[in-house]
Amino acid sequence: MSTETTPKRPSDLAVRSVVGIGMIAVALIALWMGGIVFWILCAVLGLFMMAEWADLDGVSASQKRLSQFALSVPLAIMAPIAAGPSFFALGLIAAAAFFIVIVMRRPSLAAGAFYVGLPILALLLIRRQEEGVVFTLWALALVWMCDIGAYFSGRAIGGPKLAPAISPNKTWAGLGGGVAAASLFGAAMHLAYGLPWRLTLATPVLAVVAQGGDLFESWLKRRAGVKDSGNLLPGHGGVLDRLDGLVPVAPIAALLVILPKFYP
């Protein structure tokens, strides 16, 4: 999510804050409940994300619906009452992308199946682990803390721009503040919940990755000539605007979480 913006009017900031708190509350409730509830939230968000990716790609309404249909197959397989998050689901994500390429001849639209499907698969896989609540909270909240730290440090310090051609309002100070906030959160998770060292030490690196995801989505919007990926979330834009940092973080976090299963 783009976090360093021009100063907002108090009313705009209030709306943004209320909506942001509401989204975090919904995510935390679904995370705690797990199972079918967490899968439903992820699947619904995935369909919205695919629609916004299609809009940024400039396809027709029918092509957008078809791409959502293609993605709905692997999303359904990830349900706890089906195969769940597995290599089979990963194969169906690839199949959905292949279907989109063959039927619509839009490789850029097919890339959306991976962009949306992989982080959802990763989050569901993390949540399924023995300490899934703690690990998933870590993956989600490190991105939230990075956003918050980047927003406030960027506004308070300013300074040189991070990538002015892509996102003119982002600064190096914001990046540093975001990494620092995420790192402190990772350390707190280690002390409070015994977060493994490999995840704690990876937190600042993943914070940088989250900022990279933010910049990538900013590039997509700039290419499409739009300010936001959608208008579903007041004060935040679209679902992609809110989850852009999580998209690259989730798959890496999942690999780090399950690593001991392969190298105990």
Task: Describe the 3D structure.
- α3 (61-77) packs antiparallel against α4 (87-104) and α8 (197-224) packs antiparallel against α10.
- The protein is mostly helical and 264 residues long.
- A hairpin with a 3-residue loop joins β1 and β2 (167-171).
- The protein is globular, with a radius of gyration of 18 Å.
- The chain has helices spanning 10-33, 35-57, 61-77, 87-104, 107-127, 132-157, 172-193, 197-224, 239-243, 246-262; strands spanning 161-163, 167-171.
- The protein has a two-stranded antiparallel sheet.
- It contains 10 helices and 2 strands.
Rounded mean pLDDT is 91
Poorly predicted ranges: 2-10
Q: Spatial order of the strands in the main sheet?
A: 1-2
Quantity of strands, as a count: 2
How do the SSEs run, as a string of H and E? HHHHHHEEHHHH
Strand coverage percent: under 5%
In DSSP terms (H or I, runs of 4 or more residues), the helix count works out at 10
- Overall spatial form: globular
**What distance lies between the first and last C-alpha atoms, to the nearest angstrom?**
35 Å
Largest sheet data:
2 strands, antiparallel
Helix-and-strand structural type? mainly alpha
Helix share, percent: over 70%
